[in-house]
Every structure is written in structure tokens, then in C-alpha cells.
Amino acid sequence: MGEKKSDVLQGTLDLMVLKTLHAMGPLHGFGIARRIEQLSEDVLQLNEGTVYTSLLRLQQQGWIKSEWGTSDNNRKARYYSITRLGKKQLDLETENWERIAGVIGRVLRVERQG
Amino acid sequence: MGFFRVWAAKVKGLFTRQREDHEFDEEIRAHIHDLTERYLRQGMSRANAVKAARLQFGNVTLLQETQRAQRSFLSPAEWWGDIRFGLRMMRKKPGSNAAVIIALALGIGMNVAVFSFVNALLLRPPAVVHSMGSMVELWKHSRIAIDMQSYAPFSYPDYAYYRDHTQSLEGLLAFDGDGAQSIWNRNGQGQVVQGQLASGNFFSLLGVNALLGRTLSTSDDQLGSPHPVIVLSHSFWQRELASDPEIVGKTLVLNGAEFNVIGVAPQGFTGLLVGTSPDFWAPLTLQQQFTQDKDRLTSRQEFWLIVAGRLRPSVDRAKAQAEMRVFARQLGKDYPDSNKDFDTLIYPATLVPGPYRGYVEAFTGLILGVFVLVLMIACANAASFLLARATGRVREMAIRSALGAGRARLIRQMLIESLMLSSIAGLAGIAVAWWMAHLLLELKPAAIPLSISVPLDWRVLSFALVVSFATGILFGLVPALRSATVEAAPALKDETQTAGLRKSRLRTLLLIGEIATCVVLLAGATLCVRSLMHANSIDPGFDTQHIAVATLDPSTLGYSPAKIDAFYGRLLDRVRTLPGITAASYVSHLPLGTSREATSAGHHVAPDPDQVRVDLFSASPEYFATMGIPFRRGRDFTSKESESPDPGVVIVNEVLAQKMWPGQDPIGQRIALGGAKTTSEVIGEVKAGKYRTLGESPVAVVFRANPPEGKRTLVVRASGDARPLLDALARTVQDVDPLMAVTDSQTIEEYMALPLFPARATGLLLGASGILAVVLTAIGLFGVIAYVVSQRTHEIGVRMALGARETDVLKLVMRQGLFLTSVGLLIGLAGAIAAARLLSPLLYGIGANDPATLAAVTVTVTAVAMLACYIPARRAMRVDPTVALRYE
Question: pTM for the full model?
Fold first, then answer.
């Protein structure tokens, strides 16, 4: 079921969106999707709609905020930006991620013994 | 933390839903548009580009759905779906749903009705008054008296002292607690109006501004030079003066003197005292224009002023209390005769005076508690109904859960259904409450000059809302949790359902609790109804039929004693000639009323250690004949004795005769009444009756020969029904003196509503609670047994096929019901004995643990339970084994 896959993705997508906003400054949804597409080098095949679910979740947590602005091609667009609370959360989750990735990496590197 | 933020965002989402939906749709459209543009630039055809963009974005509708769910709690479509489903479920079993709703509506309604009185008496602040929170009330408290006797209002000199010396209060106002009933000369016709004397700062301190003209000022209320001015109440102005916009500056003639109308009070303002609704306010210092009492403004012994003040912003109650204590001590030192034993207590100012609040709270609390129990029974009924239904819906729940409905979703569905039941019941309950409150007000005897408004205001409505909601959750939650924990697999397998008592332990417990509560309520109700019957059958010592009474007070018109005498004489002569009247007389006041006069009686004028407290009445000749009070010995007063200023003769009742001259003939004995300089001769002895309350122990009474110059009660005996006489009496009074008006003109039956009021009110309320409890419990018991029977149809069929007789089946089912009943009965009886103590102060003539009552309750509950079990049991008995076995 597709749900299972997105469950795994959910936490990481939130983290990616948060990091993107941190690195790039205010962006609209399309911009975020492009940035993630670019960085993931097409490894992550993502329904771009899920970016919006992630954005809403982050917004309800108070980690990002949004306001309406004008896009490059002169259209009204909603711009998302990271909040102070979000930066703190990002640090926390980055640290978390690195620790877990480190552990998993170590576990996977363990050679078959004896 | 995060959890709360998300919830807050969701709550916010409830209100911004539409805008957010719209904005989100915009965002998606723009995103897909951008994606399409990109593919177009890469050289795709438009159709392919659109398709590719759609694919890359994913399922838009699904996204919108999840987005909506995430943004707030539920999509409106889902709520609506649940409600529609609930309605469908309700329509499926209209009968039992209606029964549950009616039971809950009665339960909720009675609670709301009682609460509307709690609100009217205790919660509602006085209307129109500005920031009531900082107002406090002062009461004198005697250190040597007990109970309510120890609280007293203020005397005028004390009030003036406190007013002039207080630092902690911004100001101190006073008004008379008795009211100033007066006669308004309305174009030559007398009409009784109710006034209230108020200090000059009364309105300004309360922050009440006049609707027209101005309110009283301190210059109107100067001792020695009061202005003859009045402020009219809005309702009086509207009712009697047709809202005359030019009223300010006109004069009204009250008690024979002219008063300038200076203003009209705002709508709804009725002062600070519950139950009073004055027609006008006049300066305190005009007191002598309204009562005959000449020393009210100077005496420290006359307690008649209710005093309230506003705390300064920097002062709290404790600080103000300390100051009042200092004043009380100072006055106690300066005027030991009158003030020695008095302290001054401070209370928050409310419609019910501070010292009385506790009593009102205790009584209304008791009644509210009783009806909460009734509601609990209704809740238990509803819960066991839902539990039974949930068992029937196990399969439905299993299917829902198999199809992916989460636990929360199932619970929500069930709770919505129970909340729908309770909110329909709540609406019906408000109607019940409105009707009940009116019924209770009707019960209030006309003799109590109280006007209580019991509005269904926002407090009452929110109470109804909260009660309905709480009820819905209370009876719905357990069945909901139960049905949500359904195990899909076994439920979907076609397992035969059997329902014994063990299978439904929760429902059994509910039922036992219900029966126990019912027993407690029924016992309380029976006690109160029996006490009411006792009260009705208590002999008050006078006839309670064929008598009409009316109160008169010509002294308020400022007449001279001679003129008053002439008036009373002429009136009595005229009344005696009216057709249908067999006797007529005057008395100072009626027994069992609100007035009382007491003194001491001894054998000699000199201090007598054996002197007794006596209640004092003054009666004209023929009083005893009119009231139907028989003479034991001696004779009535003669008219000559009645007219003499110092007749020197009295009539005593049996109780006093027995006390003062045990075993002797009281006729011809001398008696010295308190304060008299000579002794009087006893010329008659009459049968004892009830004088203060119906429940009192014997009271010694002395009747004097000459009723007072001022206020008297005219008593008239009719040969038949006394009701038609009332109009004739009122007309005769106006014939004799057009300026006079009678007050409280009523038949003796109506008059007796006053002493019987406490018994009648509690009897009615608790009687209603008892009947409700029995009916609801019977429905509950019936429902559970009927359900058990329907679930056991198969089993019963098997038993009968194996040779069980009809009576065996009957016994089987009845035994189950009666076992539950007897357990509930035992618990309930224990509870009733414990609870009855609360009731004992309200009971007449029976003890709280009256064995006959308990026996009657046991019999009633058992009989009702047997009936409730018998009907389903008979159905079980009629089970056709072949049908029952085919049934599955």
C-alpha cells in the first residue's frame, strides 16, 4: 500500500523541506519541489503534491510560516520561510538524522564475522 | 508543546476552512501550471505535458482530502455523513429512541428548572447595577442569639454612623427591608402601591441612571428637611401611567400627601433585594410619611435598614470587615443598651441577603441533588439501551473496522449518535424547564408579596447545554468504547449470541444502581408526600373554609384615631349587612402569617419568676365565632370592652391556662402582661391552635380586646363559599371610604397556602422526582429483561423442546429480574436511611426513618419490578420452540 511508503517518507520529507527553506530562504511550493528534485538527482521519485502536505504539517507545528507574494513570472504565490522555532527543530533533527544514519551505516558495514 | 500547537492550528482551521481551501486550490493550480509549462518548454505536446504534470503532482483530490483533514478536525462532509447515519439509526427504532429521549428530556428539564431558580436567587446579579462585584452588604450579628435570629439589619443611627466614618467603603447606602406599602389616591380612588425607602446615594452608588428625569440625591434625603420626591420604577410607569413621557414634574398623592415625580428608573431595575419589585423609591428620611412608627429615624432598637456599600479599589473584604468590627465595638461601648452584643459582618452583596444565602443554597442544593439522581437514572437507562443496541451492532462495527475505520472513527460515530439523542433531549428539556418553572411559581402563595422573575437567561441556557452534552458523553462513552474494541474476525464469523447476566455485567451493574437510586428517591418522595398529607391534616385550630380575609390600614392615609375608629366601625356595620355573611370581626393579625407579636405574662405586675412567653393577638368581638374557634370556658369580649381604651379583660388559650393555673379554672384569674401597669382579668379560655407554624409545639397565647388603630385584618364568615364575597368586600371598603383600598383580600383556603407552602413545594418537587424515578427504573428494567429474553429466544426454544414447561421459563426469567431488584432494593434502603436525615427538617409529623414509608417503598418497587419483568417473561413463555430453533 502506498500509505506505508509515504509513512517512511513523511519524516524525511519534512526534514528536507525544512532544510531547503533554511538553505534557500523563502520559496513557494513549486520552488521547493524543484530544489528537492535537483538535489535528489531523481533518486527520490516524489509525488509533488505531498510537499504541500508536509508544508501544512510544518506550518501547524509553527516551524515555518507563509505569506502571499509575487513570483518571478509575476503571479501571486504563497512563499514559505523557516521560523526561529523551525531552525531549532532543524538542528535537532539534523543531529538525530546523522546519529541514526551513522548507526545504520555502521551496522550495514559490519562484516560477517567468524 | 507541539501537540498543543497543532491542536490550536486545527481549531483555527475550523474557522478559516473556506478561505484556506480556496487558497490551497490556487496553489495546486499554479504548481501544475508551472509543471506543464516546463514540459511544454521541453517540447512536449500540450496534451502530453498536461498528463505528465498531473502524473508528477499526484492525485489532486486525494491531496485535497488529506489536506482538509489535516488542517482541521474533520471535513464537513464526514460530520454530515455521521449525523445522517445517526438519524437513520434513530429512525430504525423510533419507539425505544423516543423513550430514551423522553426520559432524558424529563431528567434534563427538571434539572434546568431547578437551576433556573438557583440562577434567579443566587447567581444572577441585580439587574442594571454597575459592577456588582465590589458591592458588599453589612449585617448586624448578635453574639447571644442563635440561628437566623442572630442576624439583624441596621437601625438608622447606626447606619448614619457607619456611613459617616467608613474609610474602606466609597459610600454606604441603605434601604428599608420591609417596604413602604402605601395607598395611592388615583383620581379619588385608593390603590395599593409598593414603595421602597432608599438613601439619597442609593442610585448613584449603584451606578443606576434615570431613564427620565433624575434619581434621588443626597439633598433629597436630609434628616429634618426631606424633599417629598419619588422615583418611579419602569414597570409601574409603564403599567399604571401608560409610559407618560411628561411624568417628570407631575405629582402623585400617596397616603394623602403629594409627592413630586423626579424620575423614572431604568427598565429591569428592581433594587437589591430578591422578591421585591418596588413601584417607587422615596428618600429614607421621609419615613414617617409611610409608616406610623415615630422613632424609626432616631431609635437604635429598630432594625429595618439593609445596608450596602462599595469597596474602594485598594481595599479587600477582610480589610473592610476589620473596620466594621471596630465600628461595632465603638458603638457597643457608646450605646451598651442597644449595641452591646452586636458585631457587624460583611457579605458580598447579592439578591439574597448574605446571612440567608446558606439556607437557600442548602435547600436548592438538596433539590438539585435529587434531580441529578433522577437524571442519573435516565442516563443509566440510555446507557443500557445503547449497550444493548451496540451488542446488536457488533457485526456492523466489525465490518466498518474491517473496511479500515480506525478506533477513533468508530468511537466518534457512536458518540455522535449519543450526543444527537442528548441534544434533542436537551431541547425538549428546556421546554420542560420553562413549563415547570411556571408551575412552581403558580404554587407560590399570593400572600407572600414576592415577585420573583425566573428568566431563561444565558446562564440557564448554558447550563442546559452543558448538562445535555455531559449526559450525552456520560451515557454514550462506555458503549462507544465497548463497540470500538470489537474483534473483527470472531464477530464476523456467524457466532450465536447468548446473553445471560454474566455476559452483560456492566448493564447489570447499571440496573442495580438504577434500582438503588430509585429506592432512595422514592423513599424521599414518600416521606415528603406523607408529610404534606400530615401538614394538610394538622388542625390549625380554626376553620379553613367559608372564611374570607382582607387587610386594611387606614392609618397610612394620615387619619386621626377618631376617624380611623369611625371608619372601622362603619365598615364592620356595612359588612355585616352583606348577604351571605354570618359573622365578621377584626383581628390585629392572623395566626400562621408573617406577623407576630409576643410578650411575657405573669401572675403579678411585679417581676415574676414564673412568667411565661406568650404570643399576643388583639381581636374584636365575634372573632372566635367567625374563625370557628370554640370556647372551652367563659365568654367572648363585648363591644363595650372592645371600644374601651383599657378594657382590663383578656382571653387565653388552653395552653396558657394549663401553664399558669394548672388544674384550676382560669376564669376570673388575674394576669399581668409585659409592660402593663395593671393586671387583666381572664374572661374566657379558647381551644389551642397553631400560631407560628403548622409544625410547632403548643404555644401559649393571649387575646386582648382592642385591635390596633392602624393595620387590622377583617375576617368574615360566609354561609357558603367565601370566594364571591371578596369583590363585595373590596367594594364595600371603597363605598365606606373611596380613598381606602384592601390588600391581601383572599379566602382562607388561599391564605392557608402560606403556611403550607414549604410542605407543598417540597412535596410537589420530591413527589415528581419519585414518580419519575419509578417510571424510569421500570422502563430500564423492562428494557434489560426484554433484551435478555430476545437474546435468549434460541436457548429458551431449546429448553422448551427438551420439555421445560411454560412456568419453568417464566420462573427462569422472573428470577433473573427479581434477583437484580432485591440487590438494588437492599442497597437503596441503606442509602435511603442515610439520606433521610437531610430531609428531616422539612418533615411534618413523621420521623425521617419512618418504617411504614420504607415498607411502602419496598412493596412498590418490588411490584413495579415484577410487572416490568412479567411482560417480557410472558413473551418468553410464549416462545414457539419450532420457530425459535429456526430463528438463527
Answer: 0.69
